User: Which sequence fits this backbone?
């Protein structure tokens, strides 16, 4: 689950009319990588 700070960071990428899909994709993929690493550590 995204933290409030992470949600704020994603929302800050919206500048009225333009959304950087590539930037959002990068952040989400980084989050997914970190989540997978945490799951692997638990196992």
Assistant:
């Amino acid at each position: 689950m995204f933290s409030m700070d992470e949600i704020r960071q994603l929302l800050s990428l919206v500048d009225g009319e333009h959304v950087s899909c590539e930037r959002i994709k990068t952040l989400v993929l980084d989050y997914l990588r970190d989540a997978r690493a945490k799951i692997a550590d638990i196992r």
In short: Residues 17-43 form one domain. The longest helix spans residues 21-42.
